[in-house]
């Protein structure tokens, strides 16, 4: 089709209908509107560079109107006059845009989260992965689309100050830690040179240390145990409540307990502790075994000892134990699921058991790896005796006793 002698008008564009073949409406300077049989319309520019004819698209019509298409054409013609191939320039610009998109904070954060979930044979627990995602989301409104290499310490501080201003000091501290891990991942990936969180040392208010609420008075411990016995709720929740003071493991370890890790014949529960990265053994007292034998017909055919009420494939919710304690009338300032560890630690130390044996049974991390390995082996016999003695002590308190019997030494 011959070139039109005059520039295109809006009327010509509107009056041109699709045909059986492509129609080209020329506007001058090599630009034309391609009208396809399908009805699609696209602005294109034909030009010559290095002795060859080339073409580039300037956008679809009508999203790109006639005036905008002319602006794009004139920009491309200026590039030609400067000896630049507009097609190559567009590809380079597109590559730069794609690279920038691959290096935004949100993209790098997603990479870090994916590596945390899938690293090695010991990925982080689901609850940890979800918590990391939740912490990172505090920064998303401000940093999501920012190139990670351009993010300054001031920007990160603004994010943290916003969390801090809501009186969430501990959350602000944890957000800073997770953001630092994301930035260090970016450093290792060659995306940035420095971690902007390093300059923020001491910038946040220090959160007050809040210990997990726990009842440590023997008489009141007995009242708590009797209240648990009277709990009216799901049988598995009652079993978990009864087992919690006997084994005093971390709440997350209790609710995710798996039958495959429990040997009822050997009276042992052995599992890997994610927090301390060690294999931990819990000697099971006769009372603990009785609870597990009772719950086995209910959940023994599944993976978890205490599964979710919604699905046997998922563990009990992390809020179940605390919610049950609230139903029993104990506030979060009086007793928590984690507080059963404090009860055991306090009363066992008062009764004369070896502190190292208690610490090993609590699965507290030992900095000296050699000493840690020795203690876990050396104190196992005493820990077995201690766990049975502790269970007997709880029975005594449940029946109304108000004193903790001292350990009897041979």
Folded structure, characterized:
It is a single chain. The protein has 410 residues and is of the alpha+beta class. It has 17 helices and seven strands. The chain has helices at residues 10-15, 66-81, 86-102, 105-118, 126-137, 140-143, 153-165, 169-188, 218-229, 235-247, 251-255, 286-299, 320-327, 339-350, 355-361, 369-378, 380-398; strands at 23-28, 31-35, 41-49, 52-61, 262-263, 268-273, 278-283. The strands form two sheets. A four-stranded antiparallel sheet has the order 1-2-3-4. A three-stranded antiparallel sheet has the order 5-6-7.
What is the compact description of this entry?
The chain is an alpha+beta fold.
Which keywords apply here?
410 residues, alpha+beta, four-stranded antiparallel sheet, three-stranded antiparallel sheet, 17 helices, 7 strands
Distance between the termini: 110 Å
Cα gyration radius (Å): 34 Å
Helicity range: 40-55%
| Total beta strands | 7
The residue-averaged pLDDT reads: 86
Order of helices and strands: HEEEEHHHHHHHHHHEEEHHHHHH
Secondary structure topology:
Elements: H1 10-15, E1 23-28, E2 31-35, E3 41-49, E4 52-61, H2 66-81, H3 86-102, H4 105-118, H5 126-137, H6 140-143, H7 153-165, H8 169-188, H9 218-229, H10 235-247, H11 251-255, E5 262-263, E6 268-273, E7 278-283, H12 286-299, H13 320-327, H14 339-350, H15 355-361, H16 369-378, H17 380-398
Antiparallel strand pairs: 1-2, 2-3, 3-4, 5-6, 6-7
